[in-house]
Amino acid sequence: MQKLKDKFQYSLMIISSLIVFSFFGYILLFIILNGYRHINLTFIFSTDAAHGILSMIVATLIIVIISVIVSVIIALATAIYLSEYAKDHFLKTVIIFSIDSLVSIPSIVYGLFGLAFFVGTLQLKFSILSGALTISIMLLPVLINTILEALKTVGNDLKASSYALGANKSQTIFKVIIPEVRDNIFTGIILSIAKVLSESAPFILTAGVVAKMPKSIFSSARTLTTHMYLLISEGSEKNAMQLAFASGTILIALIVLLNLSVNYIKTKMGGH
Amino acid sequence: METVFSVKDFNLFYGEHQVLKNINIDIYKNKVTAFIGPSGCGKSSFLRSFNKMNDFVGTAHSTGTIDFENCDIKKIDAQSLRLKVGMVFQKPNPFKMSIFENVAYGLRCKGINDRKILEEKVQDALQKAALWDEVKDKLDQPGTSLSGGQQQRLCIARTIVLSPEVILMDEPTSALDPIATKKIENLIEDLRKDFTIIIVTHSMQQAACVSDYTAFFLMGDLIEYEKSKTFFSMPKDKRSEDYISGRFG
Ligand SMILES: Nc1ncnc2c1ncn2[C@@H]1O[C@H](COP(=O)(O)OP(=O)(O)OP(=O)(O)O)[C@@H](O)[C@H]1O
Ligand SMILES: [Mg+2]
Question: pLDDT tens across B98-119, in order?
Fold first, then answer.
């Protein structure tokens, strides 16, 4: 009887994984099959927007790099402050509550804020920098939460051991506590990259839509996802759909590539 | 006999709650002193007072004095005191770094980064902790890859690398199997030559076999402090006798 039950559960598990996997595979295949015919060297490497998407790839990569670096540094500092320094429990509760609330705000609202603050007040204009900073703010709440949760699991004895060896607070934080949560930080980075790549609305409002190779981080530029969105919504090209699928295929390749590089860095840094 | 710690009229409180009551005790140099007593009697709290680890408990405050080498520890800065008075915790807890770096940690925190000096001291500490032969070929592997007993000896090595006067051990074998426990007990025998050791333990057998002196605590009071041989063969106090024979605790 027990054996039968085990078998049943086992097959249920196999079937549900198969369903999930086939959906995923189908979507992936659908995009790639529709897109691959348009992908050739000109499409990838031409900086002329009518034919190629190199400028969007470059803009996307720069935005990913800036926003991940900025948001990880700020999130780490905030989380460390909240878990290791902040004493005032009321203030801490308020801050954590605000962070939790910020998670559920839609991206377009962050876009509007970026438009008013970075583009307007700070006079950064429509630029890669405005876009990257806006998306950094949007990444912060989830990153802070991820790191905070990880910091909670670092045992008191471990910190105490560091102090008992004559270490001071900053040595304990940088050499003992942060390495403990390193893996969680990398998970946060991968999730953040996915989020940056998937957004378009906030970038239209802050980085703009100029389909040219950016000269610097102060140039306006178009991300890959924005490009796909505009291709379809404007419909000015006659094969807009296929071009969008082709861009989608490149985007998927980019995601795989970025995740691989993050994993590479993680192991290089001695991810035991 | 030289005393390392001299405790006078020491009272410890967490907020209103008094956990140690008027303790007077001298800890002797190059001896192993065992603290025993039922759960919650304040052994760990007392142990943490010797290297100022109670400073991290916001509500903790104390009266009376603890002198370390004839100097009130209130006058010694916590960081330099902890270099002289090391501590090994109940659960082995290596840092997330290599075996080598685990041992070198305290030295690096002191600002010693010279590779030659580090290598020399790390090897010496690992040898003293009876771990060198087991790890000499894999010093760059993570400390967490070792077995529980090896991890605990690694934690002892990272403490003795700083050449402290005293090593405080809070139930160092309670998370280990009997064989690993025996190894640590043998190690304590050897370490006695170079260090003064205070060990908290729940095992009468361990206290009797590794310690020179035993202090018996009950609900915050120091009931009896005696040579271990005398204490375990003919305790003076009725309560000590009851505790040793397992009638409570
Ligand atoms: N950080 C703390 N804050 C408040 N009270 C504490 C704290 N640590 C310990 N206590 C209290 O102090 C008393 C003594 O605790 P302590 O840990 O020193 O006992 P112990 O003898 O080591 O017990 P055990 O054998 O179980 O380890 C207990 O009543 C405990 O509840
Ligand atoms: Mg204890």
Answer: 999 999 999 999 999 999 999 9
What chain B holds in terms of domains, given with CATH numbers, is 3-244 (3.40.50.300)
DSSP state of A221: -
pTM of the model: 0.85
Would you say domain A39-268 falls under CATH 1.10.3720.10? yes
Cα(A101)–Cα(A120) distance, rounded to whole angstroms? 25
Please report which ligand is nearest the Cα atom of B15.
Answer: 1
ipTM here: 0.91
Task: State whether A164 and B80 contact (CB < 8 Å).
Answer: no
Confidence class for position A36, pLDDT limits 50, 70, 90: confident
Task: Give the H or E element holding residue B239.
Answer: helix B238-244
**Band of pLDDT at residue B88, cut at 50, 70 and 90:** very high
Identify each DSSP E strand in chain A by its residue range: none
Instruction: Provide the phi-psi class of A19: left if phi over 0, else alpha when psi is between -120 and 50, else beta.
Output: alpha
Q: How far is B207 from B212, CA to CA, in rounded Å? A: 9
A257 with A193: CB under 8 angstroms?
Answer: no
Domain boundaries, chain A: 39-268
Which residues numbered 101-160 in B keep a CB inside 8 Å of some CB on A?
A: 105-106, 108-110, 142, 144-145, 155, 158-159
